[in-house]
């Protein structure tokens, strides 16, 4: 009887722990969706501010730069912060920072100040950076260690869902009636409507983030009981800088994020250009794409319609993660990365040298091949770096600053030439990434622990 009672109590405790971890994981997964959604809003925002403030492509790309520069500034301090406090406290701090960023965006929309837009995006991204540093290891730790990869893939699927929906809402709110061809100033009514759309989007986001913070605060006990305790600072970025493979991996992350962001932020402007879909209705003949874009009855693709099509760029990444997970279970990661980077580079070259209506469809497919790049680059680097996983991860996250710098180069080239020709820069990035993949396939692997989770959207 005593033994039976003991077994029953143990089973009850195990079941309770499993239930608690499952509830905690569900709470954390909502965070993945939130930052994916908010990050992808930057794409239609770049097109909107170009028209609202009559900016060049280079100046408009400063919006993406302000957002992704936060990764460079905040990643290492965020890692140190999270290592010294409970993850639940770090998440609540991150959500509070994100609410502050949304409120700054509200002020920017109401007084029509572009510098304030840049500040708001930086603050918002700073909160997201802390959130990612805290939430990625949480998702891996909440449950059976043998199923950590499954939980990360599931969480990042919700992250991808957010990146798919963000451009749809952003295009609907920010880009109605906005026209940027030829650098013409917007009609005052259209400008006011676009600013009101930005105001509305970030007002709702600030409210939803506040509700999410309350939801997380109420569930903090459940998460805290299931989450690992803070371990204190470990490793230093200096050891990663001394590692040849950590530096090579950081360069790869820099170029990958730069290529992905610059393509995404230029996509709506590219599709709307007269050289691609500006005078064509071909996109509306594609069932799901045409239905999502929603023709306004005017021949050609407007900027708002093009902005909605950008969702398929991110949707390709969402589908690619599912397909890529299955492929990675059967094929060598380095070889698969080499193939995907080569195809993405070839697509960019098609856009540069062939162009036309078909280039629009081809360009949207780049997202499908981007899908596995970040996590595979991340893990290949961790496996080959002579530095600790913590130090290497810190350096790789800092390299996300590529999303701030490469888009400026692409925007400047688009000003000097065309949106299509500007994709020569991402093509060069993918070429270097292909070299990285081939070299990684030939390099020895060091014994490391469980790879850190990696996600930027």
CATH superfamily: MFS general substrate transporter like domains
- Low-confidence stretches are 1-18, 448-453
Beta-strand content = under 5%
Shape: globular
* CATH-level-2 architecture: Up-down Bundle
Overall CATH class = Mainly Alpha
Number of strands: 0
Report the end-to-end length measured between terminal Cα atoms: 53 Å
CATH topology heading: Growth Hormone, Chain: A
GO molecular function: transmembrane transporter activity
Protein name: FHS family L-fucose permease-like MFS transporter
Keywords: Cell membrane, Membrane, Transmembrane, Transmembrane helix
Subcellular location: Cell inner membrane
Structure characteristics:
single chain; 457 residues; mainly alpha; Growth Hormone, Chain: A; 19 helices; disordered N terminus
């Amino acid at each position: 009887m005593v033994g039976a009672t003991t077994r029953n109590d143990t089973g009850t405790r195990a079941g309770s722990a499993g239930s608690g971890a499952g509830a905690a994981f569900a709470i954390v997964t909502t965070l993945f969706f939130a930052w994916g959604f908010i990050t992808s809003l930057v794409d239609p925002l770049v097109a909107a501010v170009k028209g609202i403030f009559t900016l060049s492509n280079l100046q408009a790309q400063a919006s993406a730069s302000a957002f992704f520069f936060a990764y460079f500034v905040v990643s290492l301090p965020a890692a140190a912060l999270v290592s010294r406090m409970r993850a639940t406290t770090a998440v609540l701090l991150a959500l509070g920072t994100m609410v502050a960023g949304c409120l700054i965006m509200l002020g920017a929309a109401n007084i029509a100040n572009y510098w304030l837009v840049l500040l708001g995006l930086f603050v918002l991204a700073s909160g997201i950076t802390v959130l990612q540093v805290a939430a990625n290891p949480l998702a891996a730790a909440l449950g059976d260690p043998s199923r950590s990869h499954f939980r990360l893939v599931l969480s990042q699927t919700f992250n991808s869902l957010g990146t798919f929906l963000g451009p749809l809402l952003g295009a609907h709110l920010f880009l109605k009636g906005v026209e940027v061809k030829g650098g013409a100033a917007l009609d005052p009514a259209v400008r006011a409507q676009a600013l009101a759309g930005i105001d509305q989007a970030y007002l709702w986001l600030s409210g939803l983030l506040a509700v999410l913070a309350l939801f997380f605060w109420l569930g903090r006990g459940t998460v805290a009981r299931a989450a690992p305790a803070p371990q204190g600072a470990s490793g230093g970025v200096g050891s990663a800088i001394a590692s040849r493979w950590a530096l090579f991996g950081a360069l790869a992350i820099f170029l990958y994020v730069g290529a992905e962001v610059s393509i995404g932020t230029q996509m709506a402007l590219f599709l709307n250009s007269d050289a691609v879909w500006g005078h064509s209705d071909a996109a509306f003949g594609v069932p799901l794409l045409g239905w999502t874009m929603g023709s306004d009855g005017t021949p050609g693709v407007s900027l708002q319609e093009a902005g909605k099509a950008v969702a398929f760029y991110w949707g390709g990444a969402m589908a690619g993660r599912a397909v890529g997970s299955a492929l990675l279970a059967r094929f060598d990661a380095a070889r698969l990365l080499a193939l995907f980077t080569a195809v993405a580079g070839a697509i960019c070259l098609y856009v540069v040298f062939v162009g036309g209506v078909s280039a629009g469809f081809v360009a949207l497919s780049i997202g499908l091949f981007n899908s596995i790049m970040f996590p595979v680059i991340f893990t290949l680097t961790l496996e080959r770096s002579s530095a600790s996983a913590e130090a290497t991860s810190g350096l790789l996250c800092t390299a996300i600053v590529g999303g701030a710098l490469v888009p400026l180069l692409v925007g400047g080239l688009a000003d000097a030439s065309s949106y299509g020709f500007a994709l020569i820069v991402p093509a060069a990035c993918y070429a270097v990434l292909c070299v990285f993949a081939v070299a990684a396939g030939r390099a020895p692997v060091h014994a490391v622990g469980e790879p850190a989770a990696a996600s930027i959207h």
